[in-house]
């Protein structure tokens, strides 16, 4: 028999008492009101965004602290129990940097000024001096000189192509372009290939601008001097406190211990503009690169090198402990206060951050104000709603990760779901990613929200387009604040946005003017994100039976297994354990869906028995906890922080999502090593996933062996 603690038993009794005897409140009417035009305002969202983006506000700066105070004030005035939760974390800032190109032994050197340029009439010109010099956070300080080798996007496959061409990057400084993989992976792969330094530029082919084109402020494209800054840290959270929270006085790793961890780069790197990248490319000789490595039509011909151009790269940075501030707002649940629905967005930006991340912050503040108005009209959530505004996401998901690590056990036992919006609006077109049990809920909510670009249809209709159903992506990558919730604890999660990528990303041109002119001129997309995000949260907080569907999960796993079967078809790996566990999950998902339907059909609130009240709570707990079972305390091989065995980031690209990541890495290793032992390890990883799926099935069934 399952033992229930006294505290948990009392919580259930209180829930049942409230459930049975509290006045009937039509929650659905409040939900409809939440997305109605009477509560929403594109003007208020516009004002929030304008206020948040008046100054650059990188993590650890006074401007970012001011932005935190603004978020706190909106939360508080919206009747949320609000507070700032600080952490003291390692951040890095540039001290000095220089870049010099010697095109050939007989040519004079070219000294790059490494400056992003303002433009006539730039309303931010007076505060542009507050923008940090262009740099890579957590880049290794160093002074290196080497021949230039052009490596395309800096992927593993790009280096394989170079090797086939007879090009060796050992001792060279590589020049890579942004666009396909995470910048930290670009530097890490270059380091592993023997390069002594890395330069990463924004190619016109991907980001626009350049000679003969139009760019911001006349058009949406990145100006020739624009630079995409960002972190090159390959870990998650404060690198000095892996696995525990960074309180003011706590245990921390030394610099030597952090270097040994493998998540910090060991070679210097620098982001540079498209104009500077092209200047360097003109000094690169050797074989002509393949067509898919070339730039836009009027760009110079790209050659791979090495040399004859030689680059001297010098970078000096400082690492300091700085206070960061998460802003937390809470509306306590009336009937189940010990169950949490969490919404999150980060606030810190490399520069002004109008798209990334403050379009999302503005939407979060809009939700806070709408929820405040609902409370004034008498609404109280069944479960607790928590709004989180994270800090230091740009450095490596630090604010959210520290909070999750500090509250790990509370969240593991009480969190129903985490709903993330990073950059709410890049442009047109809706995108969503989630753990599969949330797929149908997101689609259903999208049917209730008006399409911001065509008021004659719903967001769902625009999303579906000509296909039979919208495709919800997966959250395996570690590129936003959902990572700690999914990868570390196993909390059902979702992430949403309008548009997918934008040219001025992480540059000083990501400001309010760009958003107002190109991203969302009328701020209707911001309103739509807030409506969808908030409606999903309200349904999760108020619906008596949680709207999770694990049938979607089982079907996804079945698809992944078939793909895996094809990938290892020439091996002796036995997939039967995995196949059987997925079949069992499909059966369990169908059974719990039938149980939920039976409860809903037979449920009449005035005559609801205490027995059925307990049953509702018990079914909800099974639905909530099943995702936890897909995690393993040992984590992925060599990456123990990542504990989810179904979804995880790619080893060679944190932005990339992998299904069965442990199996995927083991297969790649076995194909490389071609040993019996390495294939035996693949079989072990298959067994691990099969066990995790079987554990999830047991949770859904609510059974003990």
Topology, pairings included?
Blueprint: H1 6-21, H2 27-34, H3 42-52, H4 62-77, E1 81-102, E2 110-111, E3 136-137, E4 142-150, H5 156-164, E5 173-177, H6 183-192, E6 197-201, H7 204-207, E7 230-231, H8 255-261, E8 269-272, H9 274-281, E9 310-331, E10 336-346, H10 358-376, E11 383-390, H11 398-406, H12 408-414, E12 415-420, E13 430-434, H13 439-446, H14 459-464, H15 483-489, E14 493-498, H16 512-519, H17 524-542, H18 550-567, H19 576-602, H20 610-625, E15 647-650, E16 653-659, H21 661-673, H22 676-701
Parallel strand pairs: 3-7, 4-5, 5-6, 6-8, 10-11, 10-12, 12-14
Antiparallel strand pairs: 1-2, 1-9, 4-9, 9-11, 13-14, 15-16
Helix pairs in contact: 1-20, 3-10, 4-10, 10-17, 11-15, 18-19, 19-22, 20-22, 21-22
């Amino acid at each position: 028999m399952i033992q229930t603690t006294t505290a948990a038993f009392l919580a259930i009794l209180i829930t049942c008492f409230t459930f049975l005897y509290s006045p009937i409140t039509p929650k659905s009417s409040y939900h409809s009101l939440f997305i109605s035009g009477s509560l929403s305002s594109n003007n208020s969202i516009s004002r929030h965004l304008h206020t948040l983006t008046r100054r650059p506000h990188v993590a650890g700066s006074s401007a970012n602290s001011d932005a935190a105070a603004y978020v706190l004030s909106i939360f508080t005035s919206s009747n949320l129990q609000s507070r700032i939760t600080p952490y003291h974390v390692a951040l890095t800032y540039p001290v000095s940097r220089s870049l010099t190109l010697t095109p050939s032994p007989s040519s004079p050197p070219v000294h790059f000024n490494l400056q992003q340029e303002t433009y006539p009439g730039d309303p931010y010109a007076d505060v542009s001096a507050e923008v940090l010099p262009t740099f890579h956070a957590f880049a290794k300080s160093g002074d290196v000189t080497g021949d230039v080798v052009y490596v395309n996007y800096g992927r593993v496959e790009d280096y394989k192509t170079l090797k086939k061409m007879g090009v060796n990057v050992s001792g060279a400084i590589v020049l890579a372009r942004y666009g396909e993989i995470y910048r930290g992976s670009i530097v890490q792969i270059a380091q592993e290939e023997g390069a002594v330094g890395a330069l990463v530029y924004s190619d016109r082919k991907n980001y626009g601008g350049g000679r003969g084109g139009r760019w911001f402020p006349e058009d949406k494209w990145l100006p020739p001097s624009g630079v995409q800054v960002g972190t090159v840290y390959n870990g998650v959270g404060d690198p000095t406190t892996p696995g525990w929270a960074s309180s003011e006085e706590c245990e921390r790793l030394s610099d030597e211990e952090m270097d040994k961890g493998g998540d910090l780069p060991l070679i210097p790197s620098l982001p540079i503009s498209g104009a500077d990248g092209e200047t360097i490319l003109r000094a690169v000789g050797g074989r002509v690169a393949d067509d898919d490595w070339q730039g836009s039509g009027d760009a110079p011909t790209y050659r791979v090198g090495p040399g004859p151009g030689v680059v001297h790269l010098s970078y000096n940075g400082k690492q300091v402990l700085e206070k960061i501030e998460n802003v937390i707002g809470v509306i306590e649940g009336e009937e189940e206060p010990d169950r949490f629905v969490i919404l999150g967005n980060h606030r810190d930006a490399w520069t002004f951050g109008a798209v990334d991340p403050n379009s999302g912050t503005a939407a979060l503040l809009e939700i806070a104000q709408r929820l405040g108005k609902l409370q004034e009209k008498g609404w109280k959530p069944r479960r607790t709603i928590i709004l989180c505004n994270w800090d230091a996401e740009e450095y490596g998901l630090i604010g959210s990760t520290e909070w999750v690590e500090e509250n790990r056990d509370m969240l593991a036992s009480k969190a129903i779901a985490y709903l993330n919006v990073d950059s709410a609006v890049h442009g047109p077109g809706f995108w969503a990613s989630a753990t599969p049990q949330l797929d149908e809920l997101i689609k259903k909510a999208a049917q209730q929200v008006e399409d911001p670009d065509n008021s004659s249809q719903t967001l769902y209709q625009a999303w579906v387009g000509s296909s039979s159903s919208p495709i919800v992506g997966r959250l395996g990558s570690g590129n936003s604040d959902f990572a700690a919730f999914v990868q570390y604890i196993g909390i059902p999660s979702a992430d949403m946005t309008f548009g997918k990528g934008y040219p001025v990303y992480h540059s000083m041109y990501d400001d309010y003017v760009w958003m107002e002119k190109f991203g969302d001129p009328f701020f209707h997309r911001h309103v739509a994100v807030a409506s969808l995000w908030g409606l999903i949260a309200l349904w999760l907080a108020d619906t008596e039976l949680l709207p999770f569907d694990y049938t979607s999960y089982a079907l996804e796993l079945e698809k992944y297994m078939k793909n895996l079967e094809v990938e290892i078809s020439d091996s002796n790996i036995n997939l039967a354990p995995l196949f059987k566990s997925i079949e069992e999950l499909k059966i369990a998902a169908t059974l719990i869906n039938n149980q939920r339907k039976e409860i809903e059909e037979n449920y009449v609130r005035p005559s609801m028995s205490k027995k059925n009240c307990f049953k509702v709570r018990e079914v909800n707990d099974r639905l909530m906890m099943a995702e936890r079972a897909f995690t393993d305390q040992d984590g992925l091989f060599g990456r123990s922080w990542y504990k989810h065995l179904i979804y995880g980031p790619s080893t060679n690209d944190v932005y990339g999502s992998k299904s069965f990541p442990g199996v995927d890495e083991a297969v790649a290793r076995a194909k490389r090593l071609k040993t019996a032992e390495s294939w035996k390890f693949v079989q072990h990883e298959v067994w691990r996933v099969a066990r995790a799926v079987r554990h999830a099935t047991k949770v859904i069934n609510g059974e003990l062996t």
